[in-house]
């Protein structure tokens, strides 16, 4: 299977993720910042359904949350 992105590659999300599938980091369990399109992330792994498991990063590069995103809603950052 040919993939567009490789593990640990920086990406930008092009669509708002489904809130049902957002997994917040332990540090952000209480406040849960809004995850929206345009945020930067890093590819964590390729899921068996063809989507990417993406780490969403804050301005400092810390992980805020994890989301599954299809390839067409990601671009290289």
What does this structure look like?
By secondary structure, the protein is mainly β. 0% of the residues lie in helices and 38% in strands. Strand 3 and strand 4 form a beta hairpin. It has strands at residues 10-13, 23-24, 40-46, 52-57, 63-69, 74-76. The model has no long low-confidence stretch (mean pLDDT 94). A 6-stranded antiparallel sheet has the order 2-5-4-3-1-6, with no helix packed on it. The radius of gyration is 12 Å and the shape is globular. It has one domain (10-76): SH3 Domains (SH3 type barrels), CATH 2.30.30.40. It is built from no helices and 6 strands.
Characterize this entry briefly.
With 77 residues, this protein is mainly β. Helices cover 0% and strands 38% of the residues.
Total E-strand runs:
6
**CATH homologous superfamily identity:** SH3 Domains
Distance between the termini: 23 Å
- The number of distinct structural domains comes to 1
CATH topology grouping: SH3 type barrels
Biggest beta sheet summary? 6 strands, antiparallel
Side by side, the strands of the main sheet go: 2-5-4-3-1-6
* Tally of contiguous helical segments: 0
Listing every helix as H and every strand as E from the N terminus to the C terminus, the arrangement reads EEEEEE
| CATH architectural designation | Roll
Mean pLDDT: 94
Strand content: 35-45%
General shape: globular
Instruction: Supply the helix-strand structural class.
Output: mainly beta
Low-pLDDT residue intervals, each spanning 5 or more residues? none
The proportion of residues forming helix, as a percent range, comes to under 10%
What's the Cα radius of gyration?
12 Å
């Amino acid at each position: 299977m040919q993939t567009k992105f490789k593990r640990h590659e920086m990406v930008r999300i092009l669509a708002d993720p489904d809130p049902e599938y957002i997994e917040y980091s332990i540090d952000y369990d209480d406040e849960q910042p809004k995850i929206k399109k345009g945020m930067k992330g890093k590819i964590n792994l390729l899921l068996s359904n063809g989507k990417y498991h993406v780490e969403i990063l804050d301005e400092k590069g810390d992980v805020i949350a994890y989301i599954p995103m299809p390839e067409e809603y990601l671009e290289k950052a």
